[in-house]
Specification:
By secondary structure, the chain is mainly beta. The chain contains two helices and 28 strands. 27% of the residues are buried.
Length: 359
């Protein structure tokens, strides 16, 4: 059965709507400029980029249809998936008016999607690289007036303790091979001063802890512990010691290999891609693609920033952050095949979307 999916909603969910025929799979036209020069044979063709184009789909009605469901379904713009290309999506607008009177009377009409020239993967469009080896499991426990909970990589400590207590927050089993590593403890809130943490195998002793030591949390900031691992070491818990008193803070604990400054992304498409990158870290970061330095990012303590190659903008959430970035967006692209993302500076995580593109 033919179908389409508009902004995540499938046409088969619309009562009485039938997709009679789908648009053919076709290639967009290349815009070009032709110049003829006196005294020169032939002409000069300059390629200007691919054109947006229209894709037409025939629809029909059957049975006990509800036109009030059909009309808002097509009164839309965004992303569309056609069932003859179920693993790709297009960015579209419906500009031409649909003849719904004809649709009701003759039970058939044509929908014209004005599509941008490229199509993208509908199945694995996002990729995340993280240097953080420390992944806490979902956890919650209350002791002596203090609640410790872990969710989505953030540990929360709340309450007023009557005595010093210890929590053993389970983490995904982690084996560190030989190399240099840094444990970062980032806290936000109040009452963290005096708290201590360890990454341990089973008991909170120096012999059983990463770096052979505990780490005292900073009063509203970043605390670090750097150590060299000479043999394989396995860990199972984030141990937290909380002294008595009022506590209301979050802890983001990260354990990262110091020698990791790059990773590879594969563009499976048939044309270069214009990706969106979200960079997490601190301080000044110099970002390169395929060993060509593209951007200097003055991230400071912003936490993260998003670089959008298509819009040629930098933002954090809904706020533009172009003042933090110096570089050329025209070179922020992935070639067909393997591409190397590398950096200098403190990068903890990179989210990549739109890494593949097709015509």
């Amino acid at each position: 059965m033919n179908y389409c999916i508009l902004n995540g909603k499938k046409s088969t969910l619309i009562k009485g709507l039938m997709i009679q025929s789908l648009p053919p799979i076709s290639k967009p036209l290349m815009r070009s400029r032709k110049e003829e020069i006196d005294g020169r044979d032939g002409d000069i063709i300059t390629k200007l980029g691919y054109s947006a184009y229209d894709k037409q789909m025939s629809i029909g009605l059957f049975g006990d249809f509800d036109i009030d469901e059909v009309i808002p379904f097509f009164d839309s713009e965004g992303t569309v998936i056609f069932s003859n290309e179920p693993d790709k999506f297009y960015k579209y607008q419906i500009i031409n008016q649909i003849d719904f009177e004809r649709l009701i009377r003759f039970r058939t009409a044509t929908v014209t999607f004005h599509c941008q020239p490229f199509k993208y993967s509908a199945v694995d469009d996002n990729f995340t690289f993280t240097r953080n080896r420390l992944i806490e499991k979902i956890y919650s426990q209350t002791k002596s007036g203090i609640t410790c909970s872990a969710n989505n990589g953030i540990v929360t400590i709340k309450g007023t303790g009557t005595q010093a207590i210890e929590f053993y927050v389970p983490i995904n089993p982690m084996t560190l091979t030989a190399g240099n590593y840094t444990l970062n403890a980032i806290t936000v809130g109040t009452g963290e001063n005096g708290c201590k943490i360890r990454v341990i195998d089973s008991v909170p002793t120096d012999a059983d802890s990463f770096g052979g030591s505990e780490l005292s949390l900073a009063d509203g900031g970043l605390a670090t512990l750097t150590a060299t691992v000479t043999d394989d070491e396995e860990y199972h818990y984030l141990w937290i010691r909380v002294p008595s008193g009022a506590k209301d803070f979050t802890l983001d604990a990260q354990l990262m290999a110091d020698d990791v400054h790059s990773f590879e992304v594969f563009n499976r498409g048939n044309i270069f891609a214009k990706p969106t990158l979200t960079i997490y870290g601190t301080g000044t970061i110099k970002l390169s693609i395929n060993n060509v330095e593209l951007f200097t990012i003055s991230l400071g303590n912003e936490g993260y920033i998003t670089l959008d190659a298509s819009d040629m903008n930098a933002y954090k959430g809904d706020v533009l952050k172009n003042r933090l970035v110096v570089g050329d967006y025209s070179n922020l692209k992935f070639n067909i095949g393997t591409n190397l993302i590398s950096w200098t500076g403190n990068v903890t995580r990179v989210d990549v979307s739109n890494e593949s593109r097709w015509i």
